[in-house]
Q: What sequence folds into this?
C-alpha cells in the first residue's frame, strides 16, 4: 500500500524505479531524487516542478509531495531515503526549513553532487556509513546553492494532515467530498480547495490514486483473487476498477500481475 504517511525505518535506502503517478504523501526521511531517463513532475506543497534526465531534487522530511508522469517515453528515477539522524550539522535546517525550489537542473548540478549520486547508484552495496558521508556532501552543496523558507509556507498544515490521515483510514469505505468534509468538520468547498491547491487534483481522482496504489500493492505481493482485491480497495465494481487501473498503469490488473510474477 502507498500510505499517505510513511514511517521510514531504514536509516539509508535506495530504489531505482519507473516513476508513475503517486498521490500526495509525506514521510519522516530525507528524499533525494535523481532522474536518469525521461522526465517527471515533482509536486511539493503548492508547487509543481518539471524534472528531466540529469536533474536532481531534495525533498525535506515531513513535506507533502507527489509525482506525476505525463510522458509516454521510458522513464527512470533513483530515490534515495536517509534518516534525519544521518544529516549531522544539517539537522536543524532539515527540521525547520525547506528549499524554496528543491530542484537543481542538470546544467547547474555541482560536480560534488553528481559524483556522489553516481557513486551511490553505481551498483555497489552502500552501507550506512558510506551513505551518510555522501549524504552530507550533497546536503553541504545544497545548503550553498538553494534558498530556504519556513516549512509552513509550503502548505503542510494541520488541515492537510487531517485530510490525508482520514482518507488513509477510510478509503476502503464509500466516501464523498461531502461526507469527508462533514467528518472533519469543515466546509466542502474549503476541502475542495485543498485538493486543487495542494494536491493538484480533485477529490475523486485523489481517492482513486490511494485505492489504486493499495490494489497494485496487493497484486504485486499476494496471490489473492482480483475480485477480492478491488472490493478491499474500496471500488464499487470490477468494471470501475478495471477502467481506472488500465488508465493509470496502461494494462489490466491481470496483465500487471503477470509482469511481476508471471502469474
A:
Amino acid at each position: 500500500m502507498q500510505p499517505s504517511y510513511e514511517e521510514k525505518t531504514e536509516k539509508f535506502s535506495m530504489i531505482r524505479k519507473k516513476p508513475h503517478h503517486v498521490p500526495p504523501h509525506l514521510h519522516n526521511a530525507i528524499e533525494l531524487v535523481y532522474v536518469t531517463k525521461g522526465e517527471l513532475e515533482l509536486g511539493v506543497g503548492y508547487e509543481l516542478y518539471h524534472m528531466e534526465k540529469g536533474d536532481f531534487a531534495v525533498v525535506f522530511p515531513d513535506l507533502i509531495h507527489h509525482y506525476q508522469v505525463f510522458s509516454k517515453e521510458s522513464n527512470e528515477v533513483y530515490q534515495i531515503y536517509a534518516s534525519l539522524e544521518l544529516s549531522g550539522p544539517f539537522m536543524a535546517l532539515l527540521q525547520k526549513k525547506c528549499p524554496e525550489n528543491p530542484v537543481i537542473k542538470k546544467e547547474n548540478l555541482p560536480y560534488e553532487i553528481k559524483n556522489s549520486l553516481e557513486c551511490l547508484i553505481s551498483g555497489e552495496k552502500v552501507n550506512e556509513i558510506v551513505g551518510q558521508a555522501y549524504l552530507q556532501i550533497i546536503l553541504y552543496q545544497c545548503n550553498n546553492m538553494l534558498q530556504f523558507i519556513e516549512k509552513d509556507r509550503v502548505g503542510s498544515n494541520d488541515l492537510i494532515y487531517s485530510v490525508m490521515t482520514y482518507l488513509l483510514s477510510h478509503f476502503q469505505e464509500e466516501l464523498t467530498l461531502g461526507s469527508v468534509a462533514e467528518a472533519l468538520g469543515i466546509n466542502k468547498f474549503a476541502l475542495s480547495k485543498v485538493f486543487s491547491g495542494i494536491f493538484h487534483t480533485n477529490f475523486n481522482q485523489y481517492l482513486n490514486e490511494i485505492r489504486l496504489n493499495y490494489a497494485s500493492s496487493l497484486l504485486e505481493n499476494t496471490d489473492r483473487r482480483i475480485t477480492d482485491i478491488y472490493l478491499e480497495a474500496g471500488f464499487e465494481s470490477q468494471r470501475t476498477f478495471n477502467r481506472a487501473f488500465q488508465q493509470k498503469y496502461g494494462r489490466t490488473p491481470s496483465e500487471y500481475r503477470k509482469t511481476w510474477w508471471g502469474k
